[in-house]
Design brief:
Length: 638
């Protein structure tokens, strides 16, 4: 069961990838769906046994590296933290695979798509079940590779190729920090095995590296690595461009795989992070800043998938500042509930795009809710959960994140609480802006497009309905286990909180207005969206004209892309051009080629002397003899 949960997706990827030509499109689809369903069954069974049955364990596979005294095993670590991720990833991925059967039914290379999708899932499962940092890094790089393949799946489009390259390169920046953190971890603990690291953390708290506490440096480096995968402020620029991939890819990246890897890493390394308070403060500030930054951008975007993508970026900020105040349980709870409603929103957006003949601009939609009522209903459910409206899944998890930030009673905690509250208001606003502009008002699409608006097939609607149930009930059902009175028994030591860290306990004792504030902020955001886009639709245009600078600043995503282009891309291209023209063409190629050319010319000159005529050779001999005699008689001093 434990092995099957991880390796069934790999089996599906291999069958579709290597045998897809013989299996055909339809068989490749259902083979991978069947393998994912088996993995989900195993994952849910493992969750029941490990998390609810309190029976953690490690399943050894083989020795991965054995060089000198350095040995790394390949084993599947099944504790509550791992099994929560395994169950969630396999379940969500199964639904996305099923949805893709309908969404990608007209694609030209269906086996390739399903092979990539299953490979993506396998790599994420390898990451979350890793028993050491090297194995985790294998999965970490694997999801980066799979995301590159899937974002650039439609490689005929230049925009898809550029987005894939951007995601790959930006993630490599974060991965450099991850590798440095891994190397420093080995230097500090002489091991990369989690058990050895966690057992030696207290002793290592006195170790210093370059005059700084080694654990603080490790914590910051690992967090910077997590910033790449989880699109935190500074390394976030790849995330909106990743929408160039097919919509099921966006759902898998945002809900269950790649972007959640960074949050999982913080929770996995919680025994170490608890001894790095400065690193945790950095995590809190960056997470809170990301939450508000992405929320402001989401308010003015017009691509339906990009709006939802920025909401992911913002929600990841919530997860990180929950981890930053030391309550990794709240971060994982929000990660868990977010998976359901974010997958629902992306797949719902895919259903809208499918109905609108591939149109993604919400300014060219409107008036379609009666034609696609099921999609409309599930988008409402997903938006209610995202906005944290009682009593949907996001209400329980987002409120808990804000409560632990307030209960931290620190400067960074209050900053996170304030930014999170403002982000909650903006999240509700842009969620209902999306709903109103997409489904309500007069139709703004071409008449030809409106004639063909239709509901998605049942193979796409069933996953949406299942995810809707999760978006409604996941928070209520799992609250006691993740952050409630049963949390200590549920996590069973897989998440570590320092003895002095009582934030989670105090979170249940905050003033009454604190848990009420996010709901008030959310309702206010919804009402403002109705005023702007239903009752007085001329207001947004007037505000955009009056505050054009602010509007363009947000529309252009705080000009991060332009800044990076000026600071990094253009100088790198200029340097590459100099190295190419001068270093490569003139020096590396020019010097050997020039010497070779000189030899060729000399050889050609010598070749001209060899005429093959005896008279020429006799004449040359006579000239040489005359010169020799002349030198002997007149040129040699006596």
């Amino acid at each position: 069961m434990y092995v099957g949960a991880v390796f069934f997706p790999l089996l599906g990827a291999c069958l579709a990838g290597f045998l897809g030509r013989w299996l055909g499109d339809r068989a490749s689809q259902w083979v991978t769906v069947a393998c994912m369903a088996l993995a989900a069954a195993c994952g849910i069974g493992a969750f029941a046994e490990v998390a609810l049955g309190h029976a953690p364990g490690v399943v050894p596979i083989l020795t991965f590296i054995d060089v000198g005294g350095f040995e790394v095993s390949w084993a599947l670590r099944y504790d509550t933290l791992s099994v929560v991720m395994v169950a969630m990833v396999t379940f969500i991925s199964t639904l996305i695979h099923m949805y893709s059967v309908g969404y990608m039914s007209h694609d030209a290379t269906i086996p390739r798509f399903f092979a990539y999708l299953s490979l993506f899932t396998f790599m994420m499962l390898m990451l979350v079940t890793a028993d050491n940092l090297v194995q985790l890094f294998f999965g970490w790089e694997g999801v980066g590779l799979a995301s590159y393949l899937l974002i650039g799946y439609w490689y005929e489009k230049d925009s898809a190729n550029r987005a894939a390259m951007k995601a790959f390169i930006v993630n490599r920046v974060g991965d450099v920090f991850f590798m440095l953190g891994m190397a420093l971890t080995f230097w500090t603990f002489q091991s990369v095995e989690f058990e050895t690291i966690f057992a030696g953390v207290e002793a290592a708290s006195r170790v210093r590296f370059l005059g700084l506490p080694a654990l603080e440096v490790i914590g910051v480096l690992l967090f910077l690595g997590a910033c790449g995968k989880s699109a935190q402020l500074g390394l976030h620029t790849w995330l909106p461009d990743a929408m160039e991939g097919p919509t099921p890819v966006s759902a898998l990246i945002h809900a269950a795989t790649m972007v959640t890897a960074g949050v999982f890493l913080m929770a996995r390394m919680s025994p170490l992070m608890e001894y790095a308070p400065t690193a945790l403060a950095v995590v809190t500030v960056v997470g809170a800043s990301t939450a508000i930054f992405a929320a402001t951008i989401g308010c003015v975007q017009n691509d339906i998938k990009r709006i939802i993508a920025y909401s992911t970026c913002s929600q990841l900020g919530y997860m990180f500042f929950a981890a930053g105040v030391g309550v990794y349980q709240a971060a994982m709870f929000h990660l868990f509930t977010h998976a359901f409603f974010k997958a629902l929103l992306f797949l719902g957006a895919g259903s809208v795009i499918h109905a609108m003949s591939d149109e993604q601009d919400i300014r060219r939609m409107g008036g379609i809710w009666t034609k696609i009522p099921v999609t409309y209903a599930v988008m409402w459910i997903g938006s209610l959960a995202l906005a944290g409206v009682p009593f949907f899944a996001g209400y329980y998890s987002k409120d808990m994140v804000l409560e632990v930030a307030y209960a931290a009673h620190s400067g960074v905690g209050m900053y996170a609480f304030a930014m999170g509250l403002l982000a909650a208001f903006l999240t509700a606003f842009y969620s209902w802006r999306l709903l109103i502009l997409t489904f309500h008002g007069a139709p703004r699409a071409d008449h030809h497009v409106m004639e063909h608006v239709h509901e998605s097939p049942w193979v796409m609607l069933v996953p949406l309905l299942v995810l809707s149930v999760g978006a409604v009930l996941a928070g209520y059902i799992f609250y006691p286990f993740f952050v409630g009175h049963e949390q200590e028994l549920f996590w069973n030591g897989s998440i570590h909180n320092a003895e002095h860290n009582h934030v989670l306990h105090h979170a249940h004792e905050v003033p009454a207005w604190v848990p009420l504030a996010p709901t008030v902020a959310g309702v206010a955001g919804i009402l403002l969206a109705y005023v702007f886009y239903m009752f007085a639709p001329g207001i947004p245009a007037r505000l955009a004209a009056s505050f054009r600078g602010v509007y363009l600043f947000l529309l252009n995503k705080w000009y991060f892309d332009e800044l990076y282009d000026a600071v990094f891309v253009r100088p790198a291209r200029a340097l590459a051009r100099v190295l190419w023209k001068t270093g490569d063409a003139r020096i590396i190629d020019g010097v050997p080629n020039g010497a070779a050319g000189a030899v060729v010319q000399a050889a050609r000159g010598a070749g001209r002397i060899q005429t093959g005529r005896v008279a020429n050779y006799a004449f040359a001999m006579i000239i040489g003899l005359v010169l020799f005699v002349s030198l002997m008689l007149f040129g040699v001093p006596r």
